[in-house]
Amino acid sequence: MAGDRILVLGGTGPAGIVLLRELLFRGHATVAYVRSPDKVPADLASNKLLEIIPGQLGDSTPLESAVSQSRMIISLLGPQLNDAPNPSPLPGFYSDVLFPLMKKHRVKRIIATCTVSVVDKDDSFLFGRWLLARGIQLFFRGSWDFDQRVAGVFAQLDLNIGDGGKGKEGEIEWTLVRLCGIPGGASEEEWKADREAGKGVYVGPVVSGKDKWFMTLKRGRLARWLVDVVEEEEKAGRAMESLVGKMPAVSEI
């Protein structure tokens, strides 16, 4: 049986810390599964809504404890451009470790991230995006390989979204968010400022035009959007049909 917490993976990077701030600010009981607990800021670590579980991705016992307490997983796992191993072990972590644990404990919902170097069928050709993706492929091959393999792992999930996004019993309702630049700091002051930045958030294919895809999204604004999704789905009692089984590009408007 699924738990009642939000599990955050990748919670000690800048984007992960900002996500923890947003979740706790809005009163969500949260679990952070982290390799280095000391990297969680003290003001967050002391919050009673947050449980920190230390462990490596391959440590099945503590990871299972984290998954079993959760009703939804948000994963910001991903390599830095300059240190990504090739091949990355993370795609295998999803397919061979995390997804089986989710099915075992009936945790159906996961939102994970990659970059816009992954191309979706509804994307338009934009030279700037192509140039960026090509640069990553040529000069940061490990990161490019990670994104392509992660997209493949999620796309291969046995998911039926034909019944209004609910899926079948035991299936995983996934969303793979494609990001580009996510500037912004992780301090409380920077998060508070960045969460209010911009006119709004674009969610959809990579297309050009007014109020369409842009190349950046402040980390604070990303965190706010992610928790908006959490709360909308919680209120509706189901995953959002427009996001389930999709790979939306998310950016500032």
Automatic annotation (TrEMBL):
Originating organism: Rhypophila decipiens
Protein name as it appears in the record: NAD(P)-binding domain-containing protein
Domain NAD(P)-binding: 10-130
InterPro entries in the cross-refs: NAD(P)-bd_dom, NAD(P)-bd_dom_sf, Polyketide_Oxido-like
Gene3D superfamilies: NAD(P)-binding Rossmann-like Domain
Species lineage: Eukaryota, Fungi, Dikarya, Ascomycota, Pezizomycotina
GO molecular function terms listed in the Swiss-Prot or TrEMBL record: oxidoreductase activity, acting on the CH-NH group of donors, NAD or NADP as acceptor
Recorded family membership: Belongs to the avfA family.
Pfam families, per the entry: NAD_binding_10
Record field: transmembrane: none
